[in-house]
Design goal:
261 residues, alpha/beta, eight-stranded parallel beta barrel, 12 helices, 8 strands, 41% helix, 14% strand, binds 1,3-dihydroxyacetonephosphate
């Protein structure tokens, strides 16, 4: 059984605040070595800012198929914002993706939907593709209000975005209670929420756009659960945290199709 996807799968590794640039380069080389040569999925590594330049250099030098993403950005091109990184700076490094609105940014750095909306409005100007994260905390899930919660996040974060650009967005549904906890949403439940997100995109933009946009699942994705997740029809890929820090595990996730044959 080979599961063919309508949209090109995107498998991304969010390294969070792990790996120096030296360790990062080694990890990317190991991942590259293990990737199936006929892979049709897009593979993205998302290291800390300090490793972007070195990793881009090895990706280009070795003509790797791996793409590069960043974990965050400011919404201005430049300015007196000590400690921040601008989208123009990321573009100059040929960064192709940037995570916007990860739940850890929302939780620990008070990022609001309004701020995330400003970042999304900016990111398309520099032609970097955003990976917008949405997902509910445990309390909301226990109340059964996850759909309302995610709908509100989408309404606020995507407000006023240009229809011409929106199809380049990737959305990651990451229920907060599944991040780093070892608890995953069941594949069916993740598929249901992702299908709900697609319906919302259809309402907010158009059915054609909603069919083009790729929506990932994130939250305790591991080699043992990648297949049941990826066989779900609405799930176009995964945003992996912990398991993307280990070459063996991330390769096993990337090459999930081997397990389908
Ligand atoms: P884990 O895979 O470690 O649960 O992290 C998920 C995540 O937050 C990816 O952005």
């Amino acid at each position: 059984m080979v599961n063919e996807k309508i949209r090109r799968p995107i498998i991304a590794g969010n390294w969070k605040m792990f790996k120096t640039h030296l360790k990062g380069v080694k990890l990317v080389q190991e991942i590259n070595y293990g990737i199936d040569k006929d892979i049709d999925a897009e593979v993205v590594v998302i290291p800390p800012f300090t490793a972007l330049r070195s990793i881009k250099t090895v990706i280009e030098a070795d003509k790797m198929k791996i793409k590069l993403g960043a974990q965050n950005m400011h919404y201005m091109s430049e300015g007196p914002f000590t400690g921040e990184i601008s989208p123009v700076m990321l573009k100059a490094l040929n960064v192709e993706y940037v995570i916007i609105g990860h739940s850890e940014r929302r939780q620990h750095f008070d990022e609001t939907d309004e701020l995330i909306n400003k970042k999304l409005k900016k990111v398309f100007d520099v032609k970097i593709n955003p990976i917008l994260c949405v997902g509910e905390p445990l309390k909301i899930r226990e109340l059964g209000r996850q759909k309302q919660y995610v709908r509100e996040q989408l309404n606020n974060c995507l407000k006023g975005l240009n229809k011409d650009y929106i199809q380049n967005i990737v959305i990651a549904y990451e229920p907060i209670w599944a991040i780093g906890t070892g608890k995953t949403a069941t594949p069916e439940d993740a598929n249901f929420m992702i299908s709900f997100i697609r319906q919302r995109i259809s309402r907010l933009f158009s059915p054609i756009i909603s069919e083009k946009i790729r929506i990932q699942y994130g939250g305790s994705v591991k080699p043992f659960n990648i297949v049941p997740i990826m066989v779900q029809p609405e799930i176009d890929g995964v945003l992996v945290g912990g398991a993307s820090l280990n070459a063996h595990d991330f390769i096993s996730i990337i090459n999930y199709k081997r397990k389908l044959k």
